[in-house]
């Protein structure tokens, strides 16, 4: 089953691209925080076929794994983690934490 068009339109509108094609694997960063976690859940609950979430500590996103997300060990500070996390990904939903003086 494909993801609901409403969710796809919502995400497309949120990034200023209402006609964006959000099929294929979506990689979401920041899923240990509120926004990233909720975005992942929303996609998973609409049965999006491929949701991958990245976390420095995969045990912190076990709830998303139980909902059907693929979990990738990912850390902004470790460039070697990028290739595996992004392999086969078509869309990235990047949620960055607040960083002072950035």
From TrEMBL:
Q: Which InterPro entries match?
A: Ergot_Alk_Oxidoreductase, NAD(P)-bd_dom_sf, NmrA-like
Q: Which SUPFAM superfamilies match?
A: NAD(P)-binding Rossmann-fold domains
Mind telling me which Pfam families this protein's record contains?
NmrA
The protein's superkingdom reads Eukaryota
Q: Which residues form the NmrA-like domain?
A: 24-99
The molecule here is called NmrA-like domain-containing protein
């Amino acid at each position: 089953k494909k993801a609901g068009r409403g969710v796809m339109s919502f995400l497309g509108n949120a990034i200023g691209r209402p006609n964006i094609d959000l099929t294929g694997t979506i990689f979401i960063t920041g899923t240990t925080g509120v926004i990233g976690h909720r975005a992942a859940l929303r996609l998973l609950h609409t049965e999006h076929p491929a949701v991958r979430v990245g976390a420095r500590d995969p045990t912190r996103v076990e709830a998303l794994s139980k909902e059907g997300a693929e979990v990738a060990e990912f850390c902004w500070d470790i460039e070697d983690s990028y290739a595996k996390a992004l392999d086969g990904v078509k869309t990235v939903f990047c949620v960055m934490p607040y960083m002072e003086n950035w």
